[in-house]
Design goal:
The protein is of the alpha/beta class. The chain contains 13 helices and 13 strands. The strands form two sheets. An eight-stranded mixed sheet has the order 7-8-9-3-10-11-13-12, with helices on both faces. Strands 1, 2, 4, 5 and 6 form a five-stranded antiparallel sheet that branches. A hairpin with a 2-residue loop joins strand 5 and strand 6. Helix 5 packs across helix 7. The chain is globular, with a radius of gyration of 21 Å. 41% of the residues are buried.
Length: 336
Amino acid sequence: MSNEKNTLLEVNNLHTSFHTSEGVVQSVRGITFHVDRGESLGIVGESGCGKSVTMLSIMRLLDDNAKLEADSILFDGEDLSKKTKKEMRPIQGNRIGMIFQDPMTSLNPLFTVGEQIKNPLKRHQNLSGKKAEEKAIQMLERVGIPDPAKRIHQYPHELSGGMRQRVMIAIAMCCEPELLIADEPTTALDVTIQAQILDLMKNLKEEYHSSIILITHDLGVIAGVCSRIVVMYGGLIMEEGTTEDIFYRTAHPYTAGLLSSIPKEETKQKLIPIPGTPPDLLNPPKGCPFAARCKHARKLCKEQAPGFIQLSEEHRAACWLLHPAVKQKLGEVKIR
């Protein structure tokens, strides 16, 4: 549960849909969550479950064909859902920083990395050219790029994938944001570089006292970084809890499926994939979105969406198996 004084971001009943030639894609279908000051929150789920769209909704960076509705998106008490594009500019890249999925397409190939770090410094902090360059060099050094005075004059294609990701982090952190959103920051990087990037994010979080939202499809990536996890599927939240809750007190069959697909070196167990495919969000199911792939699903699951059951102060899950009347009828169902 959120503590009002300690809450930095509070999203209430967010819906985001996209109008396409084939119909309305209901990408996010009414989600509520919060992020506390200084906290690292992980958001996990398969591709297409609504993770990235949720973050773009918060940042108000949606395409023109998008429709956003929310009771509120409160950031430090201000409702972002009511702000105009102009009113959002002092917040985007300044108070909220974002590391986008693919640094090769997110970085502008026509500008040096130095120019791309200096741009938000000039815009948000009114730094002169010389001061902005000094800060840019300092940020490149801070994110572990060797010979930063030389690197600021290079273009993205001249850097390795790991270096480009570090440049993205430098851009996102240069204005010392209160909230950093990292969208799949380790995708396409080898395991060693992944670990370095995650360590870097943890160190910067401590140094700048920022909160972090880490988006990933990989629960293994999130385990050492985040204190709390939100599990999304089909545009909805399936389960939310502390990292210990999610890993050791798993309550939703979808979360159990994600955990079963993590490689376990010590046991050498075979990976168990989740059968089937995610729901079509042009025509989302009326019941639980995971019902068609869930081995525990009952008729009720397909006909009616379950509400949340609060399992502890921090732990909640939306599954009919947890509802008292269903539990009384079926008994305890082992999901793992």
